[in-house]
């Protein structure tokens, strides 16, 4: 049956109370046969105990010849040759040491009822082997109820206390009438630690914390941590009296010390009066949040809560001497949520948190941390307390949440539950709701030992129970970590030369004897003979003879296929190719030492750089074995093949093929003799209608050619398939095609082109077939010569005449300019008419001084 399988078969067996299966293996747990062999046959496994701890599917065969290297530890499925009774393969053991039948439905719960079975289980677990079993719960009756009512007495709860006091006996009767008749009640109150900053320590406020309230203050009770006022009892008058005699108190901060009260209520069973056969309910009412662990540091309280009872009468001097209070309130820190969870589980306490709306979310979160707890909203004056208790009881009595304690640290636990109100299993859950009388809950467990406990260590029993039950299931753990034969040695066995004990088919030698049959004697106590067979020395953790041989008196006797002093080298495990290991026996041999997988190559052979085989030989890089140069001098030999110096120039297996113009012997110029002669030969042969391949074979040599009617216009082939075919094979980037001419006659030329052909990586000659119209020139017209000559003569005459005219004009101009200049420079003689008489005369007085 699979762990997550159907339940029909289980339901048929529920009446047995248990189902168990040994060694179930899921797909995730399964390993391949080879992987299991590697685990079981690990060389370091030399004893039966180590074998059965390696894997639950390994077994040890006691029989076998001593000294021989036989595989005693193997997969159990391979021990078919092991004689009957000689195989050590321990299995898990399951015993129901107590399995009383369920009590009849309706049985008085005060009797010793049985609702859980089995009650005690003994397990013997082998490491790694899971065991599966069921525990069944059948509800036969409701438990009587012990209800302890604990109330917050901080001043904000005044109206709640007034309502509770008015109810008086009515409260107790209403609880009995609306919840269950079989109920007993107790009562207690709490405030907080009477220390700053939680509570005022002013003397007058220690007596009356309400003294400074507005209006002169009320008369309040002195503050205290927790006060137990009424033990659980069926006497309702005592409960009423305890409630009515209660006075409100007060403190400073908002969080209250309710956790201190809950701890004392849980652990002080005798003082509180809890009955063993009853359901234990605590009704916790408050309108504030709570103090918890580490809050005590605010008052310099450093000691953690000790989870013990400290209820003492008269411990608070401000209260009546008969008042029972928590005496360690000022010395111990508040309990943590985890501590409360622990004591609630241990003492079977189920808390009911009745809180006001403003703190309801806080306590809802607390419910998730404390199993079997209940939270509801309390009215501002506690008027709905009866309804809360009724709803909580009905909810809790139909709910069952199991838990377990003291699970061994070396045990892995899986579980699931089948609830009566649900059709499917719930994985990793131990909770059911809506359980009615007569219904059954099935818990299925799968337990696996993950390791063996240290020698001499035992673990306490694991308990499976619930805080709502007074019953529990006890599970005792044992571990099968040793073979039966380990405890049955044959002392001074003849098979061990009387120098040792025969244990599980192998010798355990007495000092100083060693060896498979204790046949060797150690010379010194410092170094064991078997340690001399360790490659890393006596102090190392290396395997004996590297696991590939037998140590005989300090010397390794290697298994077939292994060699060297410590059998560390194998002739297997080296790289191989299609020729075989290391490239084949004629090329190399395997020398796998320490797992390096190294091949030793024969003469002429070297290791392949990546494959590791002897597949490299320099002769592979020569066209002929007699060649001096590798790769025809155009490359280097890389293992077994040539790597050309320039792959763009040289190609081929031996870099013997030129694929670039730079290494070609042909000169691609139009005037190159080889190209021109080949073109002329092809042209002539085609013109004379001869086979050019035969006629020009010698002339053209290796130069390839093609006769075409017209040179292809590679830039504009269009739909011309022949043009496209030729142009696609021409690489114009390597060699730019050039139009070449070679004179055929005085009027005709041979036209050809030299191009680079992609498909052959070589020059290719395109020769145009003869066409008189395009290849020959027309006869010369005489007029083309005469007319230019005559025109030239006339032009020269006209130019000469023009030059003469210009010369004459410039000469005449110069002479005229000279004439004009001479005319301007001529001077004429001036004469006076002899008969002319000047009409004016000038006379000077000699005696005149100049003044007038």
UniProtKB/TrEMBL annotation:
Sequence ranges assigned to domain Integrin beta subunit cytoplasmic in this UniProt record: 805-851
Gene Ontology cellular component terms for the protein in this record: cell surface; focal adhesion; integrin complex
Annotated membrane topology: Single-pass type I membrane protein
Domain Integrin beta subunit VWA: 47-483
PROSITE patterns, alphabetized: I_EGF_1 (PS00243)
Disulfide bond residue pairs: 40-483, 48-58, 51-82, 61-73, 210-220, 268-309, 419-432, 481-485, 504-545, 509-518, 551-556, 553-582, 558-567, 569-574, 590-599, 593-631, 601-614, 616-621, 637-642, 639-696, 644-655, 670-681, 678-776, 700-748
Signal sequence extent: none
The keyword Repeat is assigned to this record: yes
Keywords in alphabetical order: Cell adhesion, Cell membrane, Disulfide bond, EGF-like domain, Glycoprotein, Integrin, Membrane, Repeat, Signal, Transmembrane, Transmembrane helix
One GO process term, biological-process aspect: cell adhesion mediated by integrin
Any GO molecular function: integrin binding
Similarity field: Belongs to the integrin beta chain family.
UniProt-recorded name of the protein: Integrin beta
The species this protein was found in: Halocynthia roretzi
